Amino acid sequence: MKFPKPTEMAHRLVGGALAEGGIAVDATAGNGHDTLFLAHRVGSAGRVYAFDVQDTALRETGRRLSWAGVAERVRLVAAGHEVMGEQIAAGDRGRVGAVMFNLGYLPGGDKTRTTEAATTLTALGAALGLLAPGGVATVVCYPGHPAGGVEAEAVVDFCRGLDQGEFRVARYGFENLVSAPPFLLAVEKRGRTSNIER
Amino acid sequence: MKFPKPTEMAHRLVGGALAEGGIAVDATAGNGHDTLFLAHRVGSAGRVYAFDVQDTALRETGRRLSWAGVAERVRLVAAGHEVMGEQIAAGDRGRVGAVMFNLGYLPGGDKTRTTEAATTLTALGAALGLLAPGGVATVVCYPGHPAGGVEAEAVVDFCRGLDQGEFRVARYGFENLVSAPPFLLAVEKRGRTSNIER
């Protein structure tokens, strides 16, 4: 398969927004794949906040980061992403280059513990407020299970309602599958020069 | 703006499918941007077929290719893309790495002369038959004008109906714009090993 998966496309779109020395947030640490990606991108001068409510997830993420030798760039936060706004240092707010969400349950973990529409929207709203101009938030949605379908629809509605002068929203996914496949929503905060660039 | 436009995303997805020495088709030569991109990708050992019904488009494409010194790799065909099936050399059928469609009217040209749903679907069907396993067809749709809306919907329906065992369909576009923005559909022909890769 040549077409990137939604999670891979998220990395590509985030890559363009996140510089060496930057600040990033993994809103759903899970098994730590996105956290590790972000830690590599920001380099030794940057920092990453990673949120998860499950101890298993934070332990696995911590282990992954230690193996890669990048643990000191990452602050693991044992809390839901809906408190993101308060947990990010005041000096980092409005300066974040990328926030990544990978919704649903922890792969290999308890499938009844999933992200939920209400807290996800709270967290996404907070994330957009934390972004620097030019910063990007990505959300991979999983409509293939019932609760995931409701959550995905809520995220789509939220993103569609964003002011096009302030944010640009891209969507990427597969179309001809019998099941409802995961898809990516990516939100870019427009900069001051956006009226000229358009 | 950091997120690629649908036309740029088409180049990225085609890039992964088209090797040095490959065969490619620009189904809508227009001003020649995609033709030139394809000619560069296939290199001096490859070849590109470029279709257009308008002399202005073929002249402009030819000029662009000559300036870049790649004209000898490209066969310009003064015909609509719906005859693509017959115009490609028999030995090249089933060996094409990429076919690109950029629907609508010629930029800077006569806006009443546009591609149309019926011939576009004929051409797209032919294109999928010409592809090698792993090959990619891309279609940038413009639903922002009435005829373009009808055509875009027809292309979406056609792509959604493709057998997921034979083809993979990806879609990319912007979501929160007040106008109906262009979007990309990309179709990958699956290879013999696709059952294992899945």
Summarize the structure.
Two copies of one chain form a homodimer. In chain A, strand 6 (167-174) and strand 7 form a beta hairpin.
Textual characterization of the structure:
The structure is a homodimer of 198-residue chains. With 198 residues, chain A is of the alpha/beta class. Chain A has a single domain (6-189), classed as Vaccinia Virus protein VP39 (Rossmann fold, 3-Layer(aba) Sandwich). Chain A contains 7 helices and 7 strands. The first copy, chain A, has helices at 6-15, 33-42, 55-68, 84-87, 117-130, 146-160, 194-197, and strands spanning 23-26, 47-52, 74-78, 96-102, 131-141, 167-174, 183-189. In chain A, strands 3-2-1-4-5-7-6 form a 7-stranded mixed sheet, sandwiched between helices. Chain A is globular. The interface between A and B is medium-sized, with 33 and 33 residues.
Q: What is the 3D shape of chain A?
A: globular
Secondary-structure element order of chain A, N to C: HEHEHEHEHEHEEH
Let me know the largest β-sheet of chain A: 7 strands, mixed
Low-confidence stretches of chain A: 193-198
Radius of gyration of chain A: 16 Å
What share of the residues of chain A lie within helices?
25-40%
Total strands of chain A: the figure is 7
Q: What is the overall pLDDT average of chain A? A: 93
Largest Cβ-defined interface: A-B, 33 and 33 residues
Text of the CATH class of chain A = Alpha Beta
Order of strands in the sheet with most strands of chain A? 3-2-1-4-5-7-6
Class inferred from helices and paired strands of chain A: alpha/beta
Query: What is the name of the CATH architecture of chain A?
Result: 3-Layer(aba) Sandwich
Beta-strand share of residues of chain A: 15-25%
Oligomer status: homodimer
Structurally, how many domains make up the residues of chain A? Answer: 1
Relevant CATH superfamily of chain A: Vaccinia Virus protein VP39
